[in-house]
Write a structure and sequence with these properties.
Distance between the termini of chain B: 49 Å
Shape of chain B: globular
Radius of gyration of chain B: 16 Å
Number of helices of chain B: 2
Largest sheet of chain B: 5 strands, mixed
Number of strands of chain B: 10
Distance between the termini of chain A: 42 Å
Helix content of chain B: 10-25%
CATH superfamily of chain A: Hypothetical protein af1432
Oligomer: heterodimer
Number of helices of chain A: 16
Order of helices and strands of chain B: EEEEEHEHEEEE
Largest sheet of chain A: none
Structural class of chain A: mainly alpha
Number of strands of chain A: 0
Structural class of chain B: alpha+beta
CATH topology of chain B: 60s Ribosomal Protein L30, Chain: A
CATH architecture of chain B: 2-Layer Sandwich
CATH topology of chain A: Hypothetical protein af1432
Chain lengths: 282, 172
């Protein structure tokens, strides 16, 4: 087993997240905050504002008129979209690296993250989650951040992990824990803590594979889990871990999701993936 | 300012076949690739006599369960619509059932994803039915399990390859 201190120390090597990510998240999920507070926050960051306007004027939205201000942007594409774009913009930096060990190419972890976040957003709308929907989106985006650090340790121990998964039926995260001493969920939660994200966000990242029974009863965590497995089933940049995570039918039952619902959500996600690709390549 | 014509080069070209897509080719320098297939299934077909092959990458078994997605607009997302669409397109390019070599890979599931939620298994059943309607036999298959797979077809040689991370490559 690896000295866990060696792993945890690597968190400091990640690029720090700009404070606006946590700030906008706090505002967006606070029912007492106003749209102008969010607009002001964005306006204070000229680079972010420029980027945001560029995306709003791109084919992704296909608007018929030019968006020239943050206020315009919010009224034309909606506050939810703007918040998500700010989150994408401010959280992408670290993901550009290639997480060795998980068999993913450059940018593939980010593509999986953005796709999962998109599906999580779809699910949050479907389940009428209004208060915490941006936390759910962000959790889906950041859930695998631990892989960026754990990757090299996974690469070193891949054969042992693969035996536990392939021959002994362990899930990939369980095998990480047993062989390396820490799973990408645990490490991801430590990163989120270091970046001063909310307790809820840290909790979802920590439990997004739902090994803990209590987590299976939490709607937010279940939605992120579901978004993740849907992307695995769709094969959106799945790597060495493939689909080697546990399925909990009780979670779908609790959410009243039938077989037809699951297929319908996957169809919807597949259809939307073209849009996600435009956003990623923009 | 005159536009220059792009010179065609005799280098190997790799074309990605994303999910809910198909590609058909007779270009001997082209390789068609369906990357990281999960529960969906990738199908390669090649007819060595006419030298035309194709790859279909579908995601779901049954277009009647596609809540809110119009199957007429996305036929290749579903086995029941996509397989006939794909096979007919190959027939039009000269493929004949007795000569068509079919290789399939995918249909994976999340661990313990049994019964009604096992979409990979349903995809496999739907695909077998779809192929049987045209008397097409499966030459090689790698189906199920919890690995994601990459499936490709080299038009020049007609050979298919299935790759799983950490397990190397199988060529057929």
């Amino acid at each position: 087993m690896t000295d866990l201190k060696d792993i945890v120390e690597q968190i400091d090597l990640l690029e720090p997240v700009p404070p606006i990510a946590a700030q906008i998240l706090a505002l967006a999920d606070d029912p007492n905050s106003s749209m102008s507070e969010i607009a002001d926050l964005i306006r204070n960051d000229p680079a972010l504002t420029a980027n945001l306007l560029r995306t709003c004027n791109s084919v992704y939205f296909g608007l018929s008129r030019q968006v020239e201000s943050v206020k315009d942007a919010i009224s034309f594409v909606g506050l939810d979209h703007i918040v998500r774009l700010v989150l994408l913009n401010s959280l992408s930096t670290n993901f550009k690296k290639d997480p060795e060990g998980y068999g993913l190419g450059e940018g593939e972890l980010w593509r999986h993250a953005v796709s999962s976040a998109h599906v999580a957003g779809l699910l949050a709308d479907r389940f009428g989650v209004s208060q915490k929907k941006h936390i759910i989106y962000t959790a889906a985006l950041l859930k695998d951040i631990g892989k960026l650090i754990l990757g090299r340790f996974v690469a070193f121990s891949y054969e042992k992990i693969n035996i536990l998964v392939g021959s002994h039926g362990h899930s990939f995260n369980d095998a990480e824990k047993r062989i390396i001493g820490m799973s990408h969920e645990e490490l991801g939660a430590l990163v989120a803590k270091k970046w001063h994200f909310s307790q809820k966000l840290i909790y979802i990242i920590r439990h997004h594979h739902l090994a803990d029974e209590l987590a299976r009863q939490d709607l937010g965590t279940s939605l992120v889990y579901l978004a993740d497995i849907i992307c695995m089933m769709m094969g959106v940049c799945t790597g060495a871990d493939g689909l080697s995570y546990r399925f909990y039918s009780e979670v779908l039952n609790r959410m009243n999701l039938s077989e037809k619902d699951l297929q319908g959500i996957i169809a919807q996600a597949c259809k939307n993936q073209q849009q996600v690709e435009i956003l990623l390549n923009h | 300012m005159g536009q220059k014509q792009m010179k065609t080069q005799a280098v190997n070209r790799m074309t990605a076949v994303n999910f809910s897509e198909m590609r058909i080719s007779s270009n001997p320098t082209e390789t068609l690739v369906a990357f990281s297939i999960g529960s969906g299934i990738g199908v390669t077909v090649f007819d060595p006599v006419c030298g035309v092959g194709g790859v279909l990458n579908f995601m779901l078994p049954d277009s009647t369960k596609a809540n809110g997605v119009n199957p007429e607009k996305f036929p290749l997302m579903f086995a029941d619509k996509g397989v006939p669409f794909f096979v007919k397109a190959l027939f039009e390019k000269g493929n004949r059932p007795d000569r068509m070599k079919v290789v399939i890979a995918g249909g994976a599931h999340i661990m313990d994803q049994a019964g009604i939620f096992n979409i990979g298994e349903k995809n496999y059943e739907a695909l077998k039915n779809g192929l049987a309607n045209y008397d097409l036999k499966i030459h090689h298959e790698d189906i199920g399990g919890t690995n994601s797979r990459t499936l490709s077809l080299e038009i020049g040689s007609g050979s298919s390859s299935i790759k799983i991370f950490g397990q190397g490559e199988v060529k057929v």
